[in-house]
Amino acid sequence: MVVQQQRQQAQSDKNEVTQKQLIALKKAQSELIQAQSVTQMRETQEQIDSTSQQLDQLHFHDQQRRDLNAQVIQITSHIEQLESEINGYEKLITTKKASLKSTQEKHQDKLNQLQLQQKVAALENYIADLQDGTPCPLCGALEHPYAQNHPHLLPDDENSQLAQYISVLDEQITELNKSITAEQASKQSTLASKKNQQAELTAQIQQHDTAITELLYVISQQMNDENLADSTIANLIQPLLALGSDNDIVPVLTASKNKLATYKDRIKDSLALYDRLLEDMSRLRKTLETASQDQQVLANDITEQRYKITITESNITGIDNKITENFAELQTLITAILQRIDPYAASSYPTEALSTLQRAPENLQLLSA
Predict the structure, then answer these.
(1) Which of 158, 169, 207, 225 could form a cystine bridge with 107, CB 3.0-4.6 A?
(2) What is the pLDDT of residues 301-358, one digit of tens each?
(3) What is the reported pLDDT for 36?
């Protein structure tokens, strides 16, 4: 039983140490969730994820807007270049139109000259056909002194050259008209195309601007809702909300995302620590439960041993009482026997049995002691 009692004391001491450890864990757990409960931390995690997704959308729209703005700048530069070229072409066209006008005037002069010479030639050809007595179709004269021996006239080389020159002028006029029309059409078509692209890109930029404005408004409303918003998150993204959509939001947006990520990691570490504390507390409770069961077994063993000892002591007491009773009876019997053999005590022939009976009271007293 002593061994069981020592084991019980050792187990009790061990349980006390475990209990102190459990109390320390409970205190650490209480301090951990003092500022924010586990439920609140998990809700804050979800809010950080939601806000981070919104910031990612902001970043996407802003990046798209920046890319489109860069394209608009390039197109605007091209448009300015085209307009400059068109202005230059207008001067060239003015020059070509002046050249065209001069060429057309030359063409008309040469055409008039050719027509006149053709009329003169026609008249000169008609002189040879006049006959005396026949009236001249021009003047009505009946005598024709220049008609005799006058040969039929043919177009001379000058008229042929004039006709060729007029043909060349016709080609030049046609080419000038084509050149002016083609150059104007090409540049104006390219300019119209670029302006259409510029308008489309500007519309897309406006869409992204609207999306950014709406996202900032939604985030702002969420941060102003005391029932939903975490004050730390609201403080972290307040600089972004104060900046507005018309400014360069990239630096502040990046900083806000990094701060939210840090805050989320901190909450994640707190929740991980809380889970470890729960596991440690569960382990210690199981240890205490097992130890309590073992201690109960030891207590039951000790109780059983004590019960057996009590029964044994009771049995020994009964045996002692029985022995005492038996000694009393023996004492009475020996006294009676001695009284009967007392007459023979003075006999000259003592026997060994008689001597033993005579010493019996002394022996009984020694045994009873």
Answers:
(1) 169
(2) 778 877 888 888 888 888 878 877 777 777 777 777 767 666 655 555 455 655 665 5
(3) 74
Say if residues 162 and 114 touch (Cβ distance below 8 Å). Answer: yes
Cα 360 to Cα 121, 331, 333, 334, 356, distances in angstroms? 204, 9, 11, 7, 6
Candidates 262, 213, 274; CA nearest to 233 is 262
* Dihedral of alpha carbons 48, 51, 57, 60, sign: negative
Q: Which of 120, 151, 129 is nearest to 137 (CA)?
A: 129
- pLDDT category of residue 72 using cuts at 50, 70 and 90: very high
- Residue 192 tokens read as 């119209």
Overall residue count recorded for the chain in this entry: 369
Confidence bin at 176 (pLDDT 50/70/90): low
Residues 6+ apart with CB under 8 A from 19: 288
Per-residue CA distances from 175 to 36, 73, 145, 167, 237 (Å): 86, 37, 51, 13, 68
Average per-residue pLDDT in the chain?
76
**Total Cβ atoms within 10 A of residue 339:** 9
